[in-house]
């Protein structure tokens, strides 16, 4: 009997390399914790589109949604573009199709990793809204031309309420493991009407969650504080495009994209993927840092465990976290962190470090 069905989309570039790495760690955990996971592989990628013109459809996404969760590598190649001139990326389509409104992006400075900007004690969760904003696909009121093109930022009360509920409950859950329990909204309500509504709903939800502290900064000052004073943040919540940018600033604080996992979730669906892209500059060399993908797989187990009340998943997720932490502290170091280890060496070290 299978406990969980996982749909796997390796994607482009280093996507398949880091997915292989995460699967090796997951398989090791299955044996240790008596989990039976069945993986179904789906070959959607920008490369497939380039070769055949085939891209993910609504029917494909409905089929994929029969799985309990999706493990996603990375998709997109800068030179592969659809008819509108935009890059191919099933991640954007899945967020819209499944209504994945929150992207959880934990960012921690692990022991043994030096912050490129010498930041200390960074431990924050960036929650990026991922179903609306300027990625909502509502597009132009007018067809783009060579002279002018526009994108519309849309924010709805319903999504804000769900998003802020997630932010405050994540802050409450994080407080149990020692963080302050605090939510900051990054927004631009001085200039964008959509953000005036977002701020209003934030104030309402914050008032209902007054056991958790809250703050609001304009995105421009808030982005500066991420670099000058990152300790002021516990949970950051923000709209789609701001979240896209600040989550990568946050990743940069703690050593880069190679150690930054993410989970795009709503109450029923979850797509787990690293924050990084397909990294075409290092693809095929076996040197990608698999840490972000491995941590994303751990987030998947944690999410599955919470939904089903399955303690085995929670324990497996915790073991992966600990094994990654000990590898970063004293194991082989990937090249993006200043070491010389290749992907396989890092994965082997993580597997060796899994608690017995
Ligand atoms: P990228 O994240 O792929 O790479 C940025 C830099 O970080 C590169 O120098 C790369 O080598 C490095 N890097 C990224 N992940 C790494 C890892 N695991 N180990 C070591 N180094 C790593 O971003 P980009 O270059 O702007 O985009 C490349 C392609 O990926 C584009 O086509 C873009 O659209 C796509 N993309 C996809 C996703 C996704 O699938 N969710 C996210 C972002 C970008």
UniProtKB/TrEMBL annotation:
Q: Supply the source organism for this entry.
A: Zafaria cholistanensis
- Gene Ontology MF terms in the entry: 3-isopropylmalate dehydrogenase activity; metal ion binding
Question: Quaternary state and partners of this protein?
Answer: Homodimer.
Q: Which GO terms describe its biological process?
A: L-leucine biosynthetic process
Fetch the InterPro entries from UniProt. ICDH/IPMDH (IPR050501), IsoPropMal-DH-like_dom (IPR024084)
| Chain ranges passing through the membrane | none
As cofactor, the record names: Mn(2+); Mg(2+)
The record's top EC class is oxidoreductase
Q: Which family does it belong to?
A: Belongs to the isocitrate and isopropylmalate dehydrogenases family. LeuB type 1 subfamily.
Signal sequence coordinates:
none
Isopropylmalate dehydrogenase-like domain location: 5-350
EC number per UniProt: 1.1.1.85
Keywords for this entry? Amino-acid biosynthesis, Branched-chain amino acid biosynthesis, Leucine biosynthesis, Magnesium, Manganese, Metal-binding, NAD, Oxidoreductase
Protein name as it appears in the record = 3-isopropylmalate dehydrogenase
Classification from the root reads:
Bacteria, Bacillati, Actinomycetota, Actinomycetes, Micrococcales
Query: Which is an annotated Pfam family here?
Result: Iso_dh
């Amino acid at each position: 009997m299978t406990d969980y069905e996982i749909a796997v989309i390796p994607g482009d570039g280093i996507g398949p390399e880091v997915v292989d790495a995460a699967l090796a760690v997951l398989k090791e955990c299955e044996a240790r914790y008596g989990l039976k996971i069945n993986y179904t592989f789906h070959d959607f990628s920008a490369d497939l589109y380039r070769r055949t013109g085939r891209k993910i459809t609504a029917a494909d996404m409905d089929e994929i949604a029969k799985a309990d969760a999706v493990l996603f590598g990375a998709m997109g190649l800068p030179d592969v573009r659809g008819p509108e001139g935009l890059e191919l990326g099933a991640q954007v389509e899945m967020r819209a199709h499944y209504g994945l409104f929150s992207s959880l992006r934990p960012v921690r400075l692990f022991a043994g990793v030096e912050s490129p900007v010498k930041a200390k004690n960074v431990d924050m969760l960036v929650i990026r809204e991922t179903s609306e904003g300027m990625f909502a696909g509502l597009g132009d009121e007018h067809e783009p031309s060579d002279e002018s093109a526009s994108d519309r930022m849309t924010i709805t009360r319903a999504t804000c309420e769900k998003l802020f509920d997630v932010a405050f409950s994540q802050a409450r859950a994080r407080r149990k493991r020692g963080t302050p329990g605090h939510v900051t909204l990054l927004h631009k309500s001085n200039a964008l009407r959509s953000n005036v509504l977002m701020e209003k709903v934030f104030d309402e939800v914050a008032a209902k969650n007054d056991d958790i502290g809250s703050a609001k900064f304009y995105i421009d000052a808030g982005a500066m504080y991420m670099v000058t004073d990152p300790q002021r943040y516990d949970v950051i919540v923000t709209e789609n495009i701001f979240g896209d940018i600040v989550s990568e600033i946050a990743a940069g604080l703690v050593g880069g994209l190679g150690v930054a996992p993410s989970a795009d979730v709503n109450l029923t669906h979850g797509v787990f993927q690293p924050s990084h892209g397909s990294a075409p500059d290092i693809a095929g060399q076996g040197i990608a840092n698999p840490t972000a993908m491995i941590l994303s797989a751990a987030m998947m187990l944690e999410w599955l465990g919470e939904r089903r009340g399955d303690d085995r998943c929670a324990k497996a997720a915790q073991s992966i976290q600990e094994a990654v932490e000990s590898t970063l502290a004293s194991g082989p170091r990937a090249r993006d962190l200043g070491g010389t280890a290749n992907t396989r060496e890092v994965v082997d070290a993580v597997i060796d470090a899994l608690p017995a």
